[in-house]
Amino acid sequence: MPPPLRHLLPLLLAAAAASTAAAFVLEEATVESIHRAFATGELTSRGLVELYVRRIASLDPALHAVVEIDADGALAAADRADAARLELEGAALPPLHGIPVLIKDNIAAAGDGSGRLNATAGSLALVGSRPARDAGVVERLRCAGAVVLGTASLSEWCNFRGPRIPAGWSPRAGQGINPYVPSATPCASSSGSAIAAAANMVAVTIGTETDGSIMCPSSFNSVVGIKPTVGLTSRAGVIIISPRMDTIGPICRTVSDAVHVLEAMVGYDPRDAEATRTASRYIPKGGYGQFLNIDGLRGKRVGILRKDFFRFAPGSIQEKVFRDHFNTMRQLGAILVDNLEIPTMKVINDAVQSGERALMLAEFKLSLNSYLSELATSPVRSLSDIIDFNNKNPVEERMAEFGQSYLLQSEATNGIGPAEERAIAKLNKLCEEGLEKIMRANQLDAIVAPGASAHSLLAIGGYPAITVPAGYASNGVPFAICFGGLKGSEPMLIEIAYSFEQATKVRKPPILQHSVI
């Protein structure tokens, strides 16, 4: 079991000192630029792992984006990738061949025994647990050639410990820091994945979302996040809250990178059979890369959700930026249907009124206990055990201060009963009379909203979304534009998001105040 990152820093710095990639520019590197450097011999996968390890060691003590890294396992995998590249020179290699990836700390990575990472959801209660096998998405990433470098921090229990938990905080990693404006929120719960991608600690990270946990940190950290249709990516081997809403997706710096990673992750998994079988019918023949179309906005009908979404002060930077962005979209051939309203948004945004909270509480207990039962070894085997651990081990005062009310409420549930069935029926009705009705009535290809403001609208129905950097507020805090749609609309959303990104090219790396070695 790898020790926490802070104990590895001296070792990692020493291991990284001999990087061989002098001509390669690490900052803002993309999957494509990395592959070019591999092909020309400027860079090896081992050299890239060492560069990222070195950067993490320099930046993470201030940013708290990484929980653990598996240096030995990653270097061994990188060496195998380098050997395969030499042996198969000229042959087609997997799409993420030799590319280091950080996965969120609720995703199991058993590896091949050379090095195993904890998957703890930020909790001390799960330190020392060992998964019997990789999560389904990790298996697919490895098949695509990815090198699993380590785990990214998050809000403890995916922001489901209690309502007072600060965004991006966990007892395992501390408080995640926004690399653009340290006093600003990094947002929850895939905060570490977004921080790491934004600060160029790695090119590819993986997050999870129940309700906003990819969209929001992507927005606040000026990176691209794809929240896939629920079931498009497997949840097997992942600590989730709600099978109805949880999905696994990429967080990268460009739409192109995120799409290539998404393509590597999707598909049927017998361990998450029902959801992945249903969603597999949405996967297009030829994959998702074909939709990276620079002219992808042309002819698209995009609905602007104004009321309850665009709440910017008159004359603010955000108001001006979005006005300019909409003009750009029109110039690129998009048909914008403006001033749309979903009458039930106040109910949708209230997790208690909508029934979302009641369902999440019941589903979380069932999902967590199922995950724990499948671990090869674990110090806890149930949500009840975790609550007992927290009561007996207040390692940090903050743990007692923040409480664990959601955990306690979840433990008090008894599966999916009449109350939960009523919640499901209400959520289904909100979906039918909300997003689905407005999309069909206006013949929309997508809806557009600022930042993560549409997170609950998209969450309750398992709908997809892509967030793309849109600008920076007067205080320097990033904000995004979000494109969302009905289930299976990823091809349409990719065309729109890529065309928008290429026309605007808003993202800029943070100016880090910390030393970079």
Automatic annotation (TrEMBL):
Gene3D superfamilies: Amidase signature (AS) domain (3.90.1300.10). The keyword Iron does not apply. It comes from the Eukaryota. Keywords: Signal. InterPro entries: Amidase_dom (IPR023631), AS_sf (IPR036928). Residues 48-453 form the Amidase domain. This is Amidase domain-containing protein. It comes from Triticum aestivum (Wheat).
